[in-house]
Amino acid sequence: PHWVSGPEAEVQRMAWAVAAVLGLLLLLGSPGGCGGSPGPPRDSLREELLLSPLPSGDIAATFQFRARWDSELHREGVSHYRLFPKALGQLISKYLVRELHLSLTQGFWRTRTWGQPYLQAPAGAELWVWFQDSVTDVDKAWKELSNILSGIFCASLNFIDSTNTVTPTASFKPLGLANVTDHHLLRYAVLPREIVCTENLTPWKKLLPCSSKAGLAVLLKAERLFHTSYHSQAVHIRPICRDASCLSVSWELRQTLTVVFDTFSIGQGKRDWSLFKMFSRTVTEACPLASESKIYVDISSKTQENELLEVTPPPLSVHEASVQGDRRTYAVYDLLSPLLFNVSRSLNVQLKWKRPQDSLDLSTPVLHAQRYVSGYGLQTGEISTLIYNTHPYRAFPVILLETVPWYLRLYVHTLVITTKGKENKPSYIHYQPAQDRRRPHLLEMLIQLPANSVTKITIQFERALLKWTEYTPDPNHGFYVSPSVLSALVPSVLAMKAEDAEKSPLFTSLFPSADGSSYFVRLYTEPLLVNLPTPDFSMPYNVICLTCTVVAVCYGSFYNLLTRTFHVEEPSRGGLAKRLANIIRKVRGVPPL
Amino acid sequence: MAAPLVLGILVAVTVRAVLYRSSLAGFISERVEVASPLNAWKRVVEGLALLDLGVSPYSGDVFHETPLIIYLFHFLIEYSELVFMITDVLTAVALYLAVQDFNKVVFKKQKLLIELDRYASDVAELIRTPMEMHYIPLKVALFYLLNPYTVMSCVAKSTCAINNTVIAFFILATIKGSTLLSAIFLSIATYQSLYPLTLFAPALLYLLQRQFIPVKLKSKDFWLYTTQYAALYLCSLVVIVCLSFFLLNSWDFIPSVYGFILSVPDLTPNIGLFWYFFAEMFEHFSLFFVCVFQINVFFYTIPLAVKLKEHPIFFLFIQLAIISIFKSYPTVGDVALYMAFLPLWSHLYRFLRNIFILSCVLIVCSLLFPVLWHLWIYAGSANSNFYYAITLTFNVGQILLISDYFYAFLRREYYLTHGLYLTRKDGTEAMLVLK
After folding, report:
1. B399 touching A, CB under 8 A?
2. What is the DSSP string of B404-416?
3. Hey, is the C-beta of B300 within 8 angstroms of any chain A C-beta?
4. What residues of B are in contact with residue A425 (Cβ under 8 Å)?
5. Is B310 on the interface with A (CB under 8 A)?
6. Does A533 touch chain B if contact means CB atoms closer than 8 Å?
7. I need a surface site. Which of A358, A368, A466, B408 has the fewest CB within 10 A?
8. B216 CA to chain A: closest CA distance, Å?
């Protein structure tokens, strides 16, 4: 055999190395990160803004950004992220999350005057997560996950612990693709005390592919968004079907933000609105990464003949949909359409009321609820929940979930449910009593609501005295009780036809509707503020001293009686004073004492 | 003799029946002095409601009764008022019979000691007469039945009344000299509220005395009998605990009942010393002070047994009082039990030093409890310190009352052997001092 040696061999080796490196570079450079042929993009972004005038004269703006990724996050060692935020993707694959829903809300959605919300969230922070069934220690994963989310969203989610986490059995079903409904994989927590501010909005905006640089997200200016009576931002992650055959899974990240501008209600403005008035910005372009970018304006009116609303510029198209049991008409502005920015460079959608409406038609929603604490004093109390069914002829069941902290000791034997003056027995009841400093009360009930009725649910509680270190820094402000959750399939007046989820607007497609005759509603009641008796925080030392003194009094007197015996008093030589006196007396020549 | 007792029982039952029907019943059952987290009727009902829902009553932190109580009220919930009236009557009758028997024993013993010439010559005033002792059993029964504390406890349906009945039966069995029944009732009492464990010592001393077995560590009979009694006690305790296990098929009741008694997690105000102390305690000292406070009940037993080995029933009385002062969730029902024994020691009256002041303190405190509670919880014009102060005073009153009785008892014993009129060497009247 002949061995190549010397300078020739060196050149040959170099050539091989260059070829290898080039090949590697080519491989890496190919789109999609694998294979050679460029396939269709595996992820897509849709953005959407829905403006809906509320019956009270205010206006709600709902932003939805949906990133969809045709990738199985759990199976593959995914490392290349494009539109889907890497922080959340890694979280899902590390903690084997099946579904994650997080919302941060300031204010309360007034269902009675504002109508049924597309997506309500409870005041404060709400987090619920379904884990994969391969997770062994769900509580540990939940704890770590909430801590990481706390870091990502700059929220106090790290205060989620066993005292405010529950595992509901019926209220929270997976919204996405799921074949496991074992509720032990679910964790749900609400922090009603959480205050939402700019620091929570900024990280939320950073998750958007265009950030707040382009597209609808330019409207998200913090000083306008927090100058509202309701602000709710949320993140929903869930697996969905990749196509109609549903053989493989895609991941969907929905970022939603709802704000209600209420300058009309508080008497500072007219009922006319424009994007500029609301956000002090206008839209100039769609996000370049988005495959769909639309603005919807709800222009439906009760009476078809005289339209009350006038929208400028005139919409390019109109979309009709049946939403929440009601037929609604939306003016649609497609930001990707070249026609839109032909006339002017920016889009400032304006709404004008054609004639001033004297009487606001407050059509009450079919299902709404309110909750309050009654009773006086700091010893006991009663939580009352009123649930209204205003449907004229249909009865329907509702699942009520109550989570009450352990320091309000619920007495389930005092639970009374009355409808129209009669007792209403819940057909399903799941009660998990609280354990002191470990877990909260969980009460879940399935209650049948007769047509056109008010159902009153009352339960008594006792207020506990806590240790002085367990009180919040402002103890006399009170303690928050998280809102109760109502989940119901509300029968709709109109028959709704099933629409393709991919084609329909985003705001209609988060909750899957079972069939055409009913739609799913999840409502949250008001959070409660309950006062507890407080000890005097200024005197731990005094109390320790005084109580120990009493114990010592007992010890002292018993010790005396137990160890000593009775004796006849012997005449003593006297104390020091007597002896001194006697010395003086001796000197003076007087007989001693 | 039985007629006045029946009359007393009728009056007591009438008072209770009237209060059950009045609007006061609701008010009384909410009072923290009467119903503690351990024995409130509301919590018994809650436990049964949880059982009906298919939830273990011990899975939450509301129900802390023993499984035996569940079993009892599972059948008797409809007749609960009747049950509580009957338990009170039974307690009173048991105390009546026990004191009657005990008086006979005391009288016999006194006669024996006089015959043996153990007493000093001038103590005729201190010798107890059948006339004076005749009404004591009745007084004890009525003191229990008509004591406002007992009445309130019964009206609030505090299960403390049931514990009192068990303890009263235990005392009756002990005084009647039944080793087996005494051990069984003691184990039930222990099972119900843990602290009666300390009553083992006085019961054993009394039973030994009845069998004329001297309390000597070298005596074989003493050890034999002690082992027998302890074995009976432990066996019945094990049987009851196992029975409870089979009732619900879980051991959950052990941490939920005894863990709850010992670790004091519930700081709902009551008349005891624990609640405010642990509400204000620094977290890292908490465990230490829980131990220090719990030990108080058990701490005095051995020294008392040594000092009072000749007088086990007085020892029992002192121990009952110590339990009611130092238990973690005391109620006025516990106070009522030891107060029922006060007429039994009426012969000590002349040696009590502060009885007037102490009775005034206890009465005033009892009246101030609801007032200061109202000011703190409802009116908001006072704070927790007000209520705490009154619990402190109440407990100081109880402690001084008991130590006063103890002092008087020891003093009377001294006079009996040394003569009532003591003189010094120089013939002047002598003072008696503890040294």
Report:
1. yes
2. HHHHHHHHHHHHH
3. yes
4. none
5. no
6. yes
7. A358
8. 20
Residue keyed to tokens 């009123």: A386
Q: Which value does ipTM take for this structure? A: 0.95
Is the sign of the CA dihedral A29, A32, A38, A43 positive or negative?
A: negative
Residue whose token pair is 């009675």: A112
Q: Are A98 and A82 in contact (CB under 8 A)?
A: no
A211 contact partners, CB below 8 Å, separation of at least 6: A205, A217
Q: Which residues pair with A231 in a beta bridge?
A: A106, A259
- Residue B325 sits at the chain A interface (C-beta within 8 Å): yes
For B280, nearest residue in chain A (alpha carbons): A540
Q: d(Cα A193, Cα A125) in Å, to the nearest integer? A: 8
Token output for B131: 């006339």
The letter for the amino acid at A205 is: K
Helices (H), A5-85: 7-29
Task: Determine the pLDDT at residue A27.
Answer: 46
**Residue found by looking up tokens 């005041």 in the block:** A123
Query: Nearest-CA neighbor of A344 among A275, A296, A439?
Result: A275
The predicted pLDDT at position A505 comes to: 79
Residue with tokens 């002349």: B350
How far apart CA A550 and CA A559 sit, in angstroms, is 14
| Per-residue pLDDT, A561 | 94
Q: How far apart are CA A364 and CA B323, in angstroms?
A: 62
Q: Do A561 and B399 touch (CB under 8 A)?
A: no
CB pairs under 8 A between A and B: 169
pLDDT at B209: 94
What tokens were used for A570? 């012997």
Contact at 8 Å (CB) between A117 and A50? no
Look up residue B122 and give its two tokens: 């001038």
Answer positive or negative: Cα dihedral of A117, A122, A123, A125. negative
Q: What would you report as the CA-atom Rg of chain A, rounded to the nearest whole angstrom?
A: 34
Token pair 């396939």 in the structure block, residue:
A39
What tokens were used for B432? 């008696």
Chain A residues lying within 8 Å of B273, measured CB to CB: 547, 550-551
Nearest to B53 among A429, A464, A567 (CB): A429
Nearest to A409 among B55, B62, B281 (CB): B62
CB contact under 8 A, A534 and B383: yes
3-class DSSP string for A64-132: EEEEEECCCCCCCCCCCCCCCCHHHHHHHHHHCEEEEEEEEEECCCCHHHHCCCCCCCCCEEEEEEEEC
pLDDT of the residue at A1: 39
Mean pLDDT, residues A11-38 taken together: 49
Which of A437, A539, A568 has its CB closest to that of B430? A568
